[in-house]
């Protein structure tokens, strides 16, 4: 995360992302695009928003935030909001996962938040920069404050506390004090990437991820590659497993699991990506990759 990157530690109104919120946002924007594009400017803010989305005002703001953070919709200076190619692929006519039921969608959402992290700084920071075996909430707040201070970004510790708590609750919903709906309805909880080990203490669950498809891993690898080293046709095993923003880090895969994934790339991608291990050089070689096809295959 460079010093020139934008930071965002709020917007979710402390609500973790819930099932079907992204679909609701997508359909709302798509409906506005069809009927009157200029109406989308007030889609999440006018008096009808509460009844249209069927939730309270703060939750409407949270739905907007998550839809933008995951790249399902985007802001547009002329009409307010527009759907994105990713949103269309998932939730449009003939979409890959119109009711958000496929496990690949949860992994894709995690990747957008923790791998790209354009509007979810804490998610990206937690999964890429925190290496301690135990995640203590108070320590994380101080650690994140130092991270922001080092990059000359001023933010209140109370804001960071709310953001970290929302992030952790996204993966490990609370039981005491939460409604049954919130406990069962958190999108990222099904990934089992973080587990609670004590009061205010958590840890990452590293290793193989059974519900992460090889095709989605390949899609995320290409996405990372395009940002990390767009002009190269080879990428080292070390970068794939350990670099900031890499699939290995973001998905908390151990080296053995990453090795299994990259060795299967040739078959999975029909040699658009191929694994090479010669003369001590462990790397993936990239040919003409059809990224959209990789995403489609993740839902087969």
What does this structure look like?
With 300 residues, the chain is mainly alpha-helical. Helices cover 48% and strands 11% of the residues. It is built from 15 helices and 8 strands. A 3-stranded antiparallel β-sheet has the order 3-5-4. A 3-stranded antiparallel β-sheet has the order 6-8-7. Helix 1 (21-35) packs across helix 3 and helix 5 crosses helix 6. It is globular and about 65 Å long.
Write the layout of secondary structure elements.
Elements: H1 21-35, H2 49-53, H3 57-69, E1 73-76, E2 80-83, H4 85-91, H5 103-116, H6 121-129, E3 135-136, H7 137-150, H8 157-171, H9 180-185, E4 194-198, E5 201-204, H10 214-228, E6 234-236, H11 237-242, H12 247-250, H13 255-263, H14 265-269, E7 273-278, E8 281-286, H15 291-297
Antiparallel strand pairs: 1-2, 3-5, 4-5, 6-8, 7-8
Helix pairs in contact: 1-3, 5-6, 7-8, 10-15
Rg of Cα set: 19 Å
* Average pLDDT level: 93
Q: What is the structural class? A: mainly alpha
> Strand content of the residues, in percent?
5-15%
Overall spatial form: globular
List the secondary-structure elements in sequence, H or E. Answer: HHHEEHHHEHHHEEHEHHHHEEH
* Count of individual helical segments: 15
For the biggest β-sheet, the strand order reads 3-5-4
The tally of beta strands, per DSSP, is: 8
**Biggest sheet, open or closed, and with what strands and sense?**
3 strands, antiparallel
Q: How far do the termini sit from each other?
A: 34 Å
Low-confidence stretches: none
Residues in helix, %: 40-55%
């Amino acid at each position: 995360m460079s010093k020139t990157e934008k930071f965002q530690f709020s917007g979710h109104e402390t609500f973790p992302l819930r099932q079907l919120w992204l679909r609701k946002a997508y359909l709302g924007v798509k409906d506005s695009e069809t009927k009157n594009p200029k109406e989308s400017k007030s889609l999440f803010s006018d008096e009808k928003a509460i009844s249209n989305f069927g939730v309270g005002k703060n939750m409407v703001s949270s739905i907007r935030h998550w839809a933008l953070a995951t790249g399902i919709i985007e802001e547009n200076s002329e009409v307010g909001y527009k759907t994105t190619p990713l949103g269309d692929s998932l939730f449009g006519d003939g979409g890959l996962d119109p009711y958000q039921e496929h496990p690949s969608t949860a992994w894709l959402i995690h990747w957008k938040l923790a791998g790209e992290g354009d509007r979810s700084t804490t998610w990206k920071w937690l999964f890429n920069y925190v290496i301690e075996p135990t995640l203590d909430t108070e320590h994380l707040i101080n650690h994140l404050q130092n991270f922001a201070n080092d990059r000359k970004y001023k933010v209140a510790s109370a804001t960071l506390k709310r953001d970290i708590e929302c992030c952790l609750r996204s993966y490990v919903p609370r039981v005491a004090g939460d409604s049954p709906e919130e406990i069962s309805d958190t999108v990222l909880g099904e990934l089992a990437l973080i587990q609670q080990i004590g009061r205010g203490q958590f840890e990452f669950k590293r290793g193989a991820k059974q519900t992460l498809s090889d095709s989605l891993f390949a899609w995320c690898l290409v996405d990372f590659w395009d940002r990390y080293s767009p002009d190269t046709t080879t990428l080292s095993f070390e970068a794939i497993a350990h670099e900031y923003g890499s699939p290995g880090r973001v998905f908390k895969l151990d080296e053995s699991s990453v090795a299994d994934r990259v060795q299967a790339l040739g078959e999975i991608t029909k040699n658009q990506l191929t694994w090479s291990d010669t003369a001590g050089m462990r790397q993936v070689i990239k040919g003409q990759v059809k990224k959209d096809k990789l995403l489609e295959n993740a839902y087969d």
